[in-house]
Amino acid sequence: MRKELVGLLVLLLMCVGGITGCGLLGEKEASTSGQQTNDEEEKKKEETSEQKNDAVKKKESESNVTEQSEKEDDKDSEKQGELSKEETKTESSKSSSKETQAAVSQVNWGSYWTRDINTDWADIEFTERKGNTLKFSINSMHTDNAEAARGGYINIGEIKGAAKVSGNVATQITDEIGSGCMVKLTNYQSYIQVEPITDCSGGGGLGVYFDGKYKKGDLPMPDWWKEEVSNSDNSTEEESKEEQDQSTEQEQATEDTEGATEEEPSEDTQTLISREQAIQRVKDYLNLSLENMHYIDEGDTATGKYLIRVYQYQEATADSTEHEAPYGYFIVDPKTGEVTDVNND
Description:
Elements: H1 2-106, E1 112-115, E2 122-130, E3 133-142, H2 146-150, E4 155-166, E5 169-172, E6 183-187, E7 191-196, E8 212-216, H3 229-258, H4 275-286, E9 293-300, E10 306-314, E11 323-332, E12 339-341
Antiparallel strand pairs: 1-2, 1-8, 2-3, 3-4, 4-5, 5-6, 6-7, 7-8, 9-10, 10-11, 11-12
């Protein structure tokens, strides 16, 4: 009986131990399984976080590349914009230069223009042209009337310098003579209108002026002042014949009363001085110590006297080109050698 109870007790203990052991094993297995699940979840989280970080880094790198590319594109566009501006400026400057040259070239300034007023004859000469700049000179003269002209009483003046051209207008910008006279020239194709823009009273002798209308071409100056010469020549010849007759009668009377005497030369038979001597008379009259003075024989006046032009040659400087600076006109009587300053009479 006791053996059976012991056996049952042993079996009971074994059963209890088996149940307890199974529970422990189940708990262990459950714990192990939960831990594995947690580990897998953490790994998944880490992997997800790493993937997110990689994606963020990738986006940041892509953003940096995009920004850098955009910056480079902006720089390229700026460079292209600057190049385009420079090209536009260059093209506009070329275009304006071409337009200016075309405007200048469309106006024909020619070489010679003439103000054909008998008592106030003048001419314009264009000597050189560079781009929109013209070099020119204006020579003007004045005399009161034909009688004054025949007597050689003529005043002269000159302007010389450079003018800047804009369209059909040339405005003087340099004064090579230093007279202070500056003018504006407007080209109307068939004529040029000259207008003073400063005081030109010092540009020439008494009565000389430069403004007015100048016709195209180098027009020859007519001998208008010689129109009355024929009548005066006839009267002069008649007076000369009368004087000769009177002289002959006086000579004959003298020979009859006093005998043969040496004849005195009449005005018509007096020895005339040569043109070279006339120039020397002018040199002695002026007695100048200036260098580069020139004395030019300009022919005879209407009364048969010598007309000598005097000027000083001035070499080119930094401010002006070589030119002739007029000094004056002088009349020399071929019979007496008397010198007369035209500008002082």
